[in-house]
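Q: My labmate handed me this sequence with no annotations at all. I'd like to see what the chain might look like in three dimensions before we decide whether it's worth expressing. Could you predict it?
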Amino acid sequence: MLRFTQSCLLLCFLLFTILTASAAEIQPVKYVFLFIGDGMSFPQCQMAEEFVLKTDNRGLRINAMPYESVTKTHAANAFITESAAAGTAIACGEKTNNGMIGIAPNGDRLESIAEVAHKSGRKVGIISSVTINHATPAAFYAHNASRGNEYEIGLDLIASGFEYFGGGGIAQHDSKGTSIYTLAQEAGYTVCRSDDEIRSLKPGAGKVIALGSAEALPYAIDSGNKGLRLTDYTRQAIELLDNPHGFFIMVEGGKIDWACHNNDAAAATLDIIEFDHAVETAFDFAKKNPGEVLVVVTGDHETGALTLGLRGSSQIFVNLLSNQKASRDVLFGLTDKFMKDNKEEATFEQFKPIITEKCGLVFSETEKSQPGNLILTAEEIKNLEYDFGITKSAVLENTTGKETLARTMIRVLNNKVGVSWGSSDHTALPVNTSVWGNQAAETAKNIRDNTDIARQLKQAVVQLP
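A: Here is what I predict for the chain of 465 residues:
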């Protein structure tokens, strides 16, 4: 019995030694990128991949990286996480409770990858398509018991001293006294709040806050060719932060999550493609700096319980999502305006051309102008007309249900495409973490939980030899 116990202890010691040695294999890498697709898991990536294969005859960079792992996402106090706890786990390497930013459940302050990188002499960039003090980006610089304390999180943004913040605006920036923007300027930041100001920035600009919107950036589906996108901010961060000591850049595709909360497959797909373009920017940079770049792509959780497939069919028609010309948020604005403009005289017949224009759905064979089965059935037309009435009453009487018609328009298109949603919230589905570049194999093999990402990357961002 004693020998058996000794053998078990020896085996445990050897396993611990192997795991410790394995974890210690990560060496500093000059340039480290971490991309987080908020709400993005395997089905979202599959949907976007199928879309670009059918519409552009190519795949996605994020789906073609050589090292991958299935990554668990639960919070310290819940099986299903949200972005604050998930962001903290990815950024700091420790589980925390839902809603907490950069602190442990007992209130202890946690150190993020970005803070380790900055302390080691690297420059740091934080980018997001949603507000820059939202949960995921905040996890890399803030320490607060509640993600809802956005003004205080904005103060932490300034205190971080990180060299670049880009993307969406600072939420509640003036809710508790002096504007965060004013305080940032007083702390030595160059604050740019228009596209022209942002585009004018050159290397040597110093610490920069470059935010192209008062709130979140528009969905890719709504932006057209106007305005700066996630890819533009990523490219600019690279240009401004490049230096002999290296950098760490975190880029969040935050509106992927928002689209999935809305069960808006088209908006989610195009934001994933934009996110993929941002990742491609890191690869373009790597070509000019061979052997000096590490790229990690992950998600913080899945949103929407997305399922791909048509009942009774082995086919899916994701390419038909291209018929949708606006996000659910914009469609809601259109329906709201239509009802207010026409008031009691608003009719479904008047509104039908908008359904065809914005979602590609047609009411008869003679109207069919796009390839694919977009002809509405009698049942679908009945449902749309019924929900038109609900929306009209809600708008005119200022009650709940104003978004009903916009939701139905998108749901009908999704059904024809072969996309369905089981939830409008987060799920426990694991996410995919992909790794490429210097130390990629060593990094990827030790990632099983979202906390492992920070534990690996903290080794990669210490001071260069």
